[in-house]
Amino acid sequence: LIEIEDLSKLYQMGDETLKALDDVSLSVNKGDFVAIIGPSGSGKSTLMNMLGCLDVPSKGNYWLDGQKVNKMSDNQLAEIRNQKIGFIFQGFNLLPKLTAFENVELPLIYRKVPGKERKELALASLEKVGLADRVHHRPIELSGGQQQRVAVARALVGNPPILLADEPTGALDTKTGNEVLELMHHLNEQGHTIVLITHDLDIAKRAKRIIRIQDGKLFEDGGDFL
Amino acid sequence: LIEIEDLSKLYQMGDETLKALDDVSLSVNKGDFVAIIGPSGSGKSTLMNMLGCLDVPSKGNYWLDGQKVNKMSDNQLAEIRNQKIGFIFQGFNLLPKLTAFENVELPLIYRKVPGKERKELALASLEKVGLADRVHHRPIELSGGQQQRVAVARALVGNPPILLADEPTGALDTKTGNEVLELMHHLNEQGHTIVLITHDLDIAKRAKRIIRIQDGKLFEDGGDFL
Ligand SMILES: Nc1ncnc2c1ncn2[C@@H]1O[C@H](COP(=O)(O)OP(=O)(O)OP(=O)(O)O)[C@@H](O)[C@H]1O
Ligand SMILES: Nc1ncnc2c1ncn2[C@@H]1O[C@H](COP(=O)(O)OP(=O)(O)OP(=O)(O)O)[C@@H](O)[C@H]1O
Ligand SMILES: [Mg+2]
Ligand SMILES: [Mg+2]
Fold first, then answer.
1. Using one digit for the tens of pLDDT, what is the confidence trace for B167-182?
2. What mean pLDDT comes out for the span A59-86?
3. Backbone angles phi and psi of B60, in degrees to 5
4. How confident is the model at residue B225, as a pLDDT?
5. Which residues sit with their C-beta closer than 6 Å to ligand 1?
6. Which chain A residues are Cβ-neighbours of B141 within 8 angstroms?
7. pLDDT over 50 at A13, yes or no
8. E-assigned strands of chain A?
9. Nearest atom in ligand 2 to B143's CA
10. Is the minimum distance from the CB of A40 to ligand 2 under 6 angstroms?
């Protein structure tokens, strides 16, 4: 399903070159549940941006569902993102002027799902994350953890085949966090593919595979790290 | 040092009234290290906004260092915030157009600290959080955890008598998180007063007192919650 080969991402800062990802190769099969764990600044979010076709690599190859991504147009990439991938961003990325309901409804509008069905799916998704009573709140009228839960509801509303989640429980207490992880497990049991980024080993252990990342390099072994 | 009496904060949402804080009373002495722990949406950040004079209560009294806060003008409140309180916000609140260095320097500019001394203090503070090599990066050129560490460095740069920290290690891996907590311990040993908000019991246990919050109400006992 996902195949990356010798992929690097470099950032130019003045006369310095920073290597956020350094020749990484990774393959993820359909139905996999992969955790990526590593320290702050190790390249986790940068890798997610590559997997999610949100940013372009400096070098290397990427095949998604058998199609070569680096050769696609912006429109084709937008189509793939919209149809195949649900995102939970580390910074939530909610639209500030929209309510919780409108934020969750948004991916369904892009998919041209009719109004009545959109409303049912969006409300059901907000209910699953315990926010049925905050539907009309805008992001600034929600707590940090509630905003994160809206972001989770938005990612899950379209039942995406691939879910990319960047620290999806970072702003949640243990109990609420576990409820979110349960939703992800449930999605994986239904055959969806999940890539979960975290710096918390207890969370990473819930996945089927654990990949370590350090200074932009990937290690997939039982490793002493764990 | 901090004395709150029967303080409530209400939000009006259409025809509904939401009680974020419900008749809370709390006193914090100089040199205290208090943790406030509670589930998502329980009122932790709202309480911090009250303690930090960032928002006004709907009812109740608040004395800071013997002075009644509800009777102060905006200028007086800004002066108190600037001289007495360092903030670490849950959403970091970094200024996007400024570099890491400029963000950390900002509180010292408000205090009219001369340029040369500002530069030394800001660089030292960034070094303490492990970001000496990211000084000229703007927030979007930093990882989530690095942004949080800039927010910590900014709060500590002026050596504030009171530190209000809202989930200061939420975006950090265990090792980096512990380094931040060590900095706070060190500040507390020097006599500074710390109020630390968290939903993680392991972190709350590092404080001298633990206060639980649930649906806007405070409980300070050994309690079954812990
Ligand atoms: N501006 C607002 N308008 C309406 N309701 C609000 C507003 N700000 C906060 N709330 C509500 O007040 C309650 C308390 O929010 P607060 O941000 O204090 O929670 P918290 O304990 O910090 O949660 P978290 O751990 O998720 O950050 C929440 O239920 C939230 O929905
Ligand atoms: N736009 C950019 N310009 C320059 N450097 C960048 C940029 N974006 C990220 N970086 C750097 O790339 C490295 C990897 O960042 P990334 O956001 O992938 O880390 P991360 O593993 O997600 O960390 P965290 O756990 O703190 O979120 C960091 O050292 C960061 O400073
Ligand atoms: Mg990240
Ligand atoms: Mg909060």
1. 999 999 999 999 999 9
2. 92
3. 110, 175
4. 47
5. A 134, 137, 140-146, 171; B 11, 13, 18, 20, 38, 40-46, 90, 199
6. 11, 13
7. yes
8. 2-13, 16-28, 33-37, 59-64, 67-68, 85-88, 162-166, 193-198, 209-214, 217-219
9. 17
10. yes
